[in-house]
Design brief:
The protein is α+β, with helices and mostly antiparallel strands and 257 residues long. It folds into 2 domains: 18-183, GAF domain (Beta-Lactamase, 2-Layer Sandwich), CATH 3.30.450; 191-251, Winged helix-like DNA-binding domain superfamily/Winged helix DNA-binding domain (Arc Repressor Mutant, subunit A, Orthogonal Bundle), CATH 1.10.10. The chain is 50% helix and 16% strand. Strand 5 (137-145) and strand 6 form a beta hairpin. The longest helix has 51 residues, at 165-215. The radius of gyration is 27 Å and the shape is elongated.
Amino acid sequence: MDSNLVFVNSNKGNGRSKTMKEQNGSAEYQDIDFLHEIGKRISADPLHKVLARIVQFVSALVKCDSCLVYILEGRELVLRASKNPHSEVVGHLTLRMGQGITGWVGEHKKPVAITRKAYMDPRFESFSELPEDRFEAFLSVPILCRDKLVGVINVQHREFHIHSQKDIQLISTIGFLVGAEIEMARLEEENWKLSRELQTSKLIEKARGILQRDMQLDEAKAEQALQDQSRQSRKSMKEIAEAILLSDKIKHAPDPA
């Protein structure tokens, strides 16, 4: 076919029609703009927003019926974002490396594209919580950061669908673009959790010291007293520790003049 085959141009303002070559060039620029927009909008977002934007961008790119994002945590891939609402499984559904098509993609760091009857693939593993498992077409692409696996993007269509090489390359590029951002956001979230845990540990340690001092208990019995109070009151150890610290502060506050 002649690469300069003429198509009717919907933009009548310039008085000429576009060639196929020009249309292809225009589409390529749109793809570049699209990827640039991803990098610009995702940077500096917290992890849940980064993942939500990935789902948004990929869904707009391939017009899919489902988009799922799994993040590698330890040796497991955890479902962290979904185009369709799955509040009961997002954050809870986990896959071992090598388990199902998603686990295979994570283990081998290679994309898998299946046009029909994805559920018949020998690597496939069904989850009753995900109705998408009965969809026909399945595309799974690794998210990488310096060749290190960060997660997996899954795209599904209800009906037969051919995933073009261009779509696979674009989603892979999205994976490369956001891989470092996801890893950074994940590490920041982990650091935040560790900081919270450290603060809680210090509060509990102070509360335990107060019980040891005021009730003449050894460390083990003071710890047990905190645990018993937490269980009986159905409050966290942190809440019990904060209450003990507040009570001690009030008790030792100077009398008003």
